[in-house]
Amino acid sequence: MNAFTQELKSGLVWLPEIGMGRFPVPKDRPYDESYFSRYQSMADTPMGQQLTAARVQFVARHYQGPVLDVGIGSGQFVSCYPGALGFDVNPAGVEWLHKRNAYADLYASRWRALTMWDVLEHIDDPERAVHQAKEFVFVSLPIFEGAEHILSSRHYRKDEHIWYWTHEGLLKWFKAQGFTCVEHNTIESILGRDGISSYAFYRT
């Protein structure tokens, strides 16, 4: 097998025509108790609290009602958004949700609104995930200028991040799933998270 073919199978594949790339992250992901604890430590800081407040306000600008938080991180958004439920694949996160009677299966039903803070890029089948939203998907994730930007970015995480987008690529991808962008902002970057954009998508 030559180097080009090997890289297609095991390396980053970037398609500039659609502003999207994929890295074949191994099935053995680092989602465990220490991962959950690390996110709880990050959330329990002034920046973490500001980020959660900004996310709650972001959702409220467009939507009032129940949400399913997909990939709960530390659980802070579920704790702060009234009536939020959560879905996670990390056993520690699932246990945390069950203790609070806040667990729900993303794929068992369809939901009026999904929140995906730093999550969409982790999901093996993102099309299936966003299909579960009947009205809104709220997303924050790293945005890139191109392949070189990915390779030099701290957001290039070979054990976690499967999908990579440019701004225009993400808009096109969501349009193909039946959504229109109703807000884009960089509040998370302003608060100190380099290269992160936030989006509200509405199903049309």
Explain the overall architecture:
- There is one protein chain.
- The protein is an alpha/beta fold and 204 residues long.
- It has one domain (29-203): Vaccinia Virus protein VP39 (Rossmann fold, 3-Layer(aba) Sandwich).
- It has nine helices and nine strands.
- It has helices at residues 3-10, 33-43, 46-60, 76-80, 91-99, 126-131, 147-151, 167-176, 187-190; strands at 13-15, 20-22, 68-70, 85-87, 111-117, 133-142, 163-165, 179-185, 196-203.
- The radius of gyration is 17 Å and the shape is globular.
- The model has no long low-confidence stretch (mean pLDDT 96).
- Pfam families: Methyltransf_23.
Distance, first to last CA: 45 Å
Instruction: Please tell me the CATH architecture by its name.
Output: 3-Layer(aba) Sandwich
Mean pLDDT: 96
Order of helices and strands: HEEHHEHEHEHEHEHEHE
Q: What key phrases describe this protein's structure?
A:
Methyltransferase type 11; alpha/beta; three-stranded antiparallel beta sheet; SAM-dependent_MTases_sf; 9 helices; 23% strand; six-stranded mixed beta sheet; 204 residues
Structure at a glance:
The chain is built from 9 helices and 9 strands. With 204 residues, it is an alpha/beta fold.
